[in-house]
Amino acid sequence: MTPAARLQAAIEVLDEVIASARENGPPADTIVTRYFKQRRYAGSKDRRAVRELVFRAIRRSAEIPSSGRAALLGLVEDDCALLEHFSQPRGPDPIREDERPATAGIIPGWLQGELSAHVAADEWPALLERAPLDLRVNVARASRQEMLNQFPGAEPTPISPWGIRLPPDSRIDDQPAFGEGLVEVQDEGSQLIALACEPRAGERLLDLCAGAGGKSLALAGAAPGATILATDSNRARLSKLGPRAARAGTLIESRLLNPPHELDELSDWNGAADLVLVDAPCSGSGTWRRNPEGRWRLTPDRLDRLLAAQERLLDLGAELTRPGGRIVYAVCSLLSREGAGQIERFQSRHSSWISEDAPIAAGRPDGAGRLLTPAHDGTDGFFVARLRRSC
Fold first, then answer.
1. First to last CA, the chain
2. What SS3 state is found at 146?
3. Catalytic status, residue 332
């Protein structure tokens, strides 16, 4: 592909990404992969170049652009060298005088007032920087130093004692340590949430929103001998846990839930869990550096639905926790209503629950919890709070 053809391909991909964001369809990575499966003539350099253009354009625009062409014209505004490829064979049409590029920005305007006070404007650029690849060592089977020796260029994560850090875009799926379940891909912030749980052998641990089970696996690695139940309402995501647990050499029970009947389906755990981890569905605003198009998918209505789901899950967690037991609540969000505000509202409904400082050496106090941010902590953005039920 010529440079001009790569620009045209990026416009076509961006049109699909924009349509998908509006319709809550597949993510950009999936769309890029599908686009090139249908165009086998494109070489690896072409695929990398187009992907880079697409994600540069996505990162540049906080608000959803009117079209893929408008998104790419924004890149031209920042890099005039791209202009020469317009009107060339197989390239984009010439730029018209009345065309307007997509507006540059980091935070959608309607969301700026929702941010935690800790996320000042000087921290915003870090929300879109390229993230490293963090791995969590399965400490039940290997030491961090052993794994550092197996991954050239790896460094220990600065906060989590379980983590090692690789450069962005590192491949690990062909590494023996990954195939043997000695490491799992997990951002350091996610590892710290598992650390905040302080799991112990012999405890009953319930991961209420387990997804594909990353934090369940971290709990199992840190507390061999604990009884762990991983639950979720998404069959496709939860089904990934079984193979991951087998690879890690651990036993984790999973259970598919059918909202709003969770209490009936978890009757054997009602008031019996030593720990309930509520890693709730959220805006994902803390993971924009990995998923910048998430800004295009979030709407005020969707945020309101997420807030209601978080509230319901916290109340459910309270029913499942034994007297003296604990809830750890986490969201990969930088929005106050999803973090500190959600815990404040929980305690207004459950006044006997006691806030505890999350035992992690990271983040900044934010209400009754702690907030981790890319700029301050070098992790994805997370809010985490720990609460204890009175005896």
1. 68
2. helix
3. yes
Contacts of 186 (CB under 8 A, 6+ apart): 134, 135, 136, 163, 214, 218
Dihedral angle computed from the Cα positions of residues 11, 13, 18 and 20, in that order, rounded to the nearest 10 degrees: 160
Give bridge partners of residue 232 from the DSSP assignment. Answer: 256
Give dist(CA 159, CA 372) in Å, integer.
11
* Cβ 303 vs Cβ 351: under 8 Å: no
- Amino acid of residue 135: L
Rounded-to-integer distance, Cα 197 and Cα 104, Å:
40
The DSSP secondary-structure symbol of 65 reads P
Phi, psi of 227, deg, nearest 5? -95, 120
For the chain, which residues score pLDDT lower than 70?
none
Region of residue 291 (phi > 0: left; psi between -120 and 50: alpha; otherwise: beta)? beta
pTM of the predicted structure, to 2 decimals: 0.93
Tokens, residue 36? 């090139």
Active site residue: 80, 282, 332, 391, which one? 332
pLDDT, residue 42, reads 81
What is the per-residue pLDDT across 291-324, written as a single tens digit (0 to 9) for each?
A: 999 999 999 999 999 999 999 999 999 999 999 9
pLDDT tens for 36-73 read 988 878 888 988 999 999 999 999 999 999 999 999 99
Instruction: Give the type of residue at 59.
Output: R
- H or E stretch covering 17: helix 3-23
